[in-house]
Write a structure and sequence with these properties.
Largest sheet: none
Order of helices and strands: HHHHHHHHHH
Length: about 280
């Protein structure tokens, strides 16, 4: 009897456990989710530009991103210009071209130092604040509450922050450029004995309109990267205070890396475009 029952019972197939994704698969999955997040943000931003009355909170975010960043961007820009004047003066004296120090400071500030430095200050101050704010809303289920009420949190929360970063980063870059050149002027003329006329004449000689626009063009993409990465990290942070803190750190580091990589590719691309249109750039000496 026992043998008959054993023969009639179906043989159960072993249940396959779900495979744990590899690190590469997790990175690719996260990148795909970020691209989808960015695409939705772009669509909602285009819709908000066409219908600006639907955009709420933009002025508040512009105040948080722009006005509150003025002191830190101004201080770092001015002191970077001062440091450049001190560090480069001995090299200019060695070749007898110390009066041309203004051209090198101005060119370096408007092309590289100003846009990158302003973006890094925003990534640290604004990016961290955006991630912490949205991450706290995610942990306390406020984002889910918005979805339940029929509001898309990307449209309602991300678009104003993204637009504020996009609009105000170039403006803060101009401010950083101005104070960087001004800081170099203070040290060069008041401490190193360069005449006012020589400093400003050589600054005007060494800087072209293209180079100013090059720095502003890059800053638009820097601001967009900061806004997208910071908001995405807030939306996808882990649970609890430790999850929000980890998301803030990851948001700043990834924004910093994105700025450096974008700066490299834009430097190469815009230099090739300039040489193709105007020929090799003139020397400042």
């Amino acid at each position: 009897m026992t043998d008959v029952v054993a023969e009639t019972q179906p043989v159960r197939e072993p249940v396959a456990l779900p495979r744990t994704p590899t690190q590469v698969e997790r990175i690719l999955e996260g990148f795909g989710e970020f691209c989808l997040f960015a695409w939705q943000t772009f669509l909602y931003t285009a819709s908000a530009i066409v219908r600006p009355h639907t955009m709420r909170g933009l002025l508040t975010q512009m105040y948080e991103v722009g006005v509150k960043s003025v002191p830190v961007v101004g201080i770092t820009g001015a002191f970077i210009g001062m440091v450049m004047a001190i560090e480069s003066y001995a090299q200019f004296v060695a070749i007898g071209q110390e009066e041309r120090i203004g051209s090198v400071i101005g060119l370096t500030v408007v092309k590289q130092i100003g846009p990158v430095l302003a973006a890094m200050m925003l990534a640290g101050r604004v990016g961290g604040a955006l991630t912490a704010e949205l991450g706290t809303m995610n942990v306390t289920e406020q984002l889910d509450a918005l979805r339940v009420m029929g509001s898309d949190p990307i449209r309602y929360l991300v678009v104003p922050r993204f637009l504020a970063c996009l609009i105000l980063t170039p403006i803060l870059t101009v401010y950083s450029d101005y104070l960087g050149i001004l800081g170099g002027w203070i040290v060069a003329t008041k401490a190193l004995g360069i005449s006012d006329e020589a400093y400003w004449q050589n600054s005007a000689f060494g800087i072209e309109t293209w180079q100013v626009m090059e720095g502003l063009f890059k800053s638009v993409f820097f601001g967009g990267a900061i806004g997208l990465i910071s908001c995405y990290k807030g939306f996808t942070c882990g649970s609890g205070a430790s999850g929000v803190g980890k998301a803030c750190t990851e948001g700043f580091v990834q924004s910093f890396i994105a700025i450096i990589i974008l700066n490299f590719f834009f430097a190469k691309l815009l230099r090739d475009i300039y040489e193709g249109r105007f020929g090799p750039p003139e020397s400042v000496f």
